[in-house]
Amino acid sequence: xxxxxxxxxxxxxxxxxxxxxxxxxxxxxxxxxxxxxxxxxxxxxxxxxxxxxxxxxxxxxxxxxxxxxxxxxxxxxxxxxxxxxxxxxxxxxxxxxxxxxxxxxxxxxxxxxxxxxxxxxxxxxxxxxxxxxxxxxxxxxxxxxxxxxxxxxxxxxxxxxxxxxxxxxxxxxxxxxxxxxxxxxxxxxxxxxxxxxxxxxxx
Length: 203
Known about the structure:
Elements: E1 2-10, H1 14-25, E2 30-35, E3 40-46, E4 51-57, E5 80-88, H2 91-97, E6 104-110, E7 113-119, H3 126-129, E8 133-137, H4 143-146, E9 153-161, H5 164-171, E10 180-184, E11 189-196, E12 199-202
């Protein structure tokens, strides 16, 4: 089984992404870190049981010889939600049951955080990046345990795609979270709603 772990908002620069989230949600993001293998860096926002990651290419790092995750090498335009990540205990089983193109397990770490993530060799996940990236946290430490509680909570994650029915079938019986809704759309898009002290806000 999979469970919603976090949302990824991509941006051309980390500063742009942080400013976009701050304006939309009225919050200040916590520090994140760098991912040397992928030459990316991030900032984070605690949402209770899940979190939001703002991610961008790290201009201080050498571009890797392989595609960055979340298809960041081809990202353009304004900051926006591009991906969602699902955690699982048996990564090998979920990869075997999933659609082709989910990628190969890659062991990663930052400080005392340890995780294994399936990274597609193209940088792009199935269903135009609408299928979740799969992660297994190794050890007892998870980012939500370290993040300040923003007071915000995820109400709904809407994933639009032209092949919505096929995407639903690919996730059937593998993810049970009423907040995650797959809808028909002319193109792939992610939209999220949050409860905040100022009412419902959206990305």
